[in-house]
Design goal:
By secondary structure, this protein is α/β, with parallel strands linked by helices. The protein is 41% helix and 12% strand. The longest helix has 21 residues.
């Protein structure tokens, strides 16, 4: 049953209601349960909170034993950004792969299967899909998280993704409004700026968001980007012109507006998380996402008190906070009404992890997303264990460095004895050749177009060993190289499996 501590006033409860905090651990700490009892309505989960489907289901049940309508959110995009499979790599190939196939029914099926896994574990709000139009190939944070550079393609796949998730009772949170695709700065690190005119904004960035709104996306996540044509002073998350004027009034969106992580430097470095949260709610946001980095009780109390004090001093209208809280409760009611009717048991969820019958849609999609180009040198499938040289860029914050990527593990499964080495920008091709010896070399790169050192190393390697197989796992922007060039359109585990099958000639 829903319980609230007697004596907790409406203003304080509303302030707690609009927070979506994170925490450390695989069970709920006492402080979190206590704050849920006092009115906290949402909890955000991250990779650090997930070990297995059984553990995750037990965790969400623990939260709902305290409050049965609590929203449990997670950042599960599939592909490069996974929390369910943070230690293994995702069973789903991600948006760029889906966009490259351009089969909306496939995208819908992938989202439905991913949503089903979330629902079986008790998660009812997914901070996905990314509806960003990746118009800037140098974008350091979106890239393969986008369906692609074409607004109409992104729009139709965003709709399919929203349909897939919400068809199984998991609320979609379409992000990052009004569009993070045309940036060359990661908002985790600094404030990106987009200087486009209104015509470009409406013809490009806003096309997928209009489509998502028409598809009844239950939530939209704001971006920490400065869109100068609408607000030259404040990032979108803190901008009344963008959240209220554009999203609410012009586009007619009436669902929940969630902020991106408030501890990200694009907001925190200039405004701080307390003032930033007050400004975000005042601008039209309804829920404050925090917890990717700051994940303790003190943060929750800081933000709660900042919101309460802002109302009491007149900086934040009480009606605006009450409206935000009401939208959170409305979404909680929607998810509660869709949750768990006839759901599979936790043990069933465990069976689905990986490659259980009926759960292969991710692998199907990854195989279909492969683009294989044969070089001038004749190529035959590998039959003996190769040497995998992985040229490794620094991971962005959204992806993180916990999640494995590449093809070495999958190739070793097919060709036992496969060896691998990781190479950075200070490595020499001679070191690769020495380590490989007489073995065939499989070179794995990621976003090679963004890393000149990687392209140079790859050219030198192919010149020295023309029979090298090249697997490109980021954006497919590079000229094909090697005896065989395989573009996977993503770096998820399932992309690596599909590529390994192509290298070994064992694909379905």
């Amino acid at each position: 049953m829903t319980t609230l501590v007697h004596g907790t006033d409406t203003l304080t409860r509303d302030a707690l209601t609009v927070l979506q905090p994170g925490f450390v651990g695989t069970t709920a700490p006492d402080w979190l349960l206590r704050r849920i009892g006092e009115g906290l309505s949402s909890v955000g989960l991250f990779g650090r909170n997930v070990v297995s489907p059984e553990q995750l289901a037990a965790l969400t049940a623990q939260l709902r034993a305290e409050r049965d309508d609590v929203l449990v959110a997670i950042d599960e995009e599939g592909g490069d950004v996974t929390r369910l499979e943070v230690k293994q790599g995702s069973s789903f190939p991600g948006n760029y792969a889906l966009g490259s196939v351009d089969d909306v029914e496939l995208t819908r099926a992938v989202a439905r299967e991913l949503g089903s896994r979330l629902a079986r574990c008790g998660i009812d709000l997914n901070w996905a899909p990314s509806a960003d139009v990746n118009s800037n190939a140098e974008n350091p944070v979106i890239g393969v998280r986008s369906f692609g550079p074409d607004p109409d393609l992104v729009a139709r796949h965003t709709v399919a993704y929203v349909d897939g998730l919400q068809g199984v009772g998991v609320a979609a949170c379409t992000k990052h409004f009004p569009g993070h695709g045309d940036t060359n700065v990661d908002s985790h690190d600094a404030l990106p700026r987009i200087d486009v005119d209104l015509a470009t904004l409406h013809a490009r960035e806003l096309v997928p968001f209009r489509a998502a709104i028409a598809a009844d996306t239950k939530a939209v996540m704001s971006a920490h980007i400065l869109l100068s044509v609408l607000d030259p002073h404040r990032p979108a998350t803190l901008s009344p012109q963008i959240l209220t004027g554009l999203l609410r009034q012009e586009l007619g969106y009436q669902g929940l507006i969630v902020t991106d992580g408030m501890e990200m430097q694009a907001v925190a470095a200039t405004y701080g998380i307390e003032r930033g949260s007050v400004l975000a709610i005042a601008a039209g946001a309804d829920a404050i996402c925090v917890g990717g980095g700051l994940c303790d009780e003190g943060t929750v109390l800081q933000l709660r008190d900042a919101l309460v004090n802002a109302v009491r001093t007149g900086e934040l209208p009480e009606e605006r906070l009450a409206d935000a809280a009401a939208r959170v409760r409305a979404l909680a009611a929607w998810t509660q009404s869709h949750r768990a009717r006839g759901a599979e048991s936790v043990s069933g969820a465990a069976v689905q992890e990986g490659t259980a019958p009926g759960a292969d849609i991710g692998l199907v999609a990854a195989r279909r997303a492969l683009k294989v180009t044969r070089g001038k040198e004749p190529h035959t499938p590998l039959t003996s264990a190769p040497y995998v040289a992985a040229f490794t860029p620094v991971a962005n914050f959204a992806v993180g460095d916990e999640t494995p990527w590449g093809i070495a593990a999958e190739l070793d499964r097919l060709l036992p004895g496969t060896e691998t080495g990781s190479y950075a920008d200070d490595s020499s091709v001679d070191a690769v050749l020495a380590a490989a010896g007489k073995r065939r070399v499989v070179a794995v790169v990621r976003d090679v177009h963004r890393h000149p050192w990687m392209g140079q190393a790859l050219d030198a390697l192919v010149a020295a060993r023309p029979d090298t197989v090249v697997v490109e796992m980021g954006l497919n922007e590079a000229e094909p190289r090697g005896a065989l060039h395989i573009a996977t359109h993503g770096a998820a585990r399932v992309c690596g499996r599909a590529a390994a099958e192509a290298v070994a000639g064992t694909g379905a």
